[in-house]
Amino acid sequence: MEDDSLDVLRFRERLGLPGIVDVHTHFMPERVLRKVWAYFDSVGPLTGMEWPITYRHEEEQRLALIRSFGVLRFTSMLYPHKPGMARWLNGWAADFAARVPDCLHTATLFPEEGVEVYVKEAVESGARVFKSHLQVGAYDPNDPLLEPVWGLLAEAGVPVVMHCGSGPAPGRFTGPGPVGRLLARHPRLRLIVAHMGMPEYGEFLALARAYPEVRLDTTMAFTDFSEGFAPFPAAERGRLADLGDRILLGTDFPNIPYPYVHQLEALERLGLGDEWLRAVCYRNAEALFGPVV
């Protein structure tokens, strides 16, 4: 693992970066994370492929590792798959952020009675980013129960990282259609499309062009692993450059089937230049979440 840290350090030194901001990392209650890992191990239907976990360690070791990579800010992306989970997960995430100050206070939601109440509570207690997982949660972002929540988050300016693309396996409500309808009603919602909207890259880039508050995170996109089943279209690279101020580094650490540095190398080999890389790996997140102190 020391070699991993050195490889990331060399990447940062080449770019003159003080560190990295990773907006898509997973820290969860241990029993929840173990179930997630077991799902990956079983080649569950939402993955459908072999998916070894590279950083399968206890929490303290995972924290030490991500810090050794020079990641100055990260998130505790967590999500419910059924009603009654989100409020409990939010309580855990608030405690985690309190004891791990370099983690952006993360929260989540689910279309259920009381969702507006606990989302408001999370925002008022300092949540900086929310996670919405349309694939795992199997819900429509246009569910009427969520309507006041999107308005609340748009008004508060709190970003939402949403897994809304149809990769690695489609869900009933994934794809650009449901998200497009959501944004038509809430154009100021700070939506961060996870995984670059994989595999509907072009459609989600078009939504980002249409809505100035829409961003995309790089999680697993462009890597050898993802290029094997959902290659990014070469014709869309121009849009990556044009929207360079609204693309944020995400990795899915620790649940990745390759070393952390591979995500960074995959971005570098796009050939979009050092300034683009500096923006994606640090400056864009700094502009969104404020300076790292």
From TrEMBL:
It comes from the Bacteria. InterPro entries: ACMSD, Amidohydro-rel, Metal_Hydrolase. The keyword Lyase applies. CDD domains: metallo-dependent_hydrolases (cd01292). Residues 21-290 form the Amidohydrolase-related domain. Keywords: Lyase. Pfam families: Amidohydro_2. Coiled coil: none annotated. The keyword Lyase applies. GO terms for molecular function: carboxy-lyase activity; hydrolase activity. SUPFAM superfamilies: Metallo-dependent hydrolases. GO terms for cellular component: cytoplasm. GO terms for biological process: secondary metabolic process. This is Amidohydrolase. The lineage of its organism: Bacteria, Bacillati, Actinomycetota, Actinomycetes, Kitasatosporales.
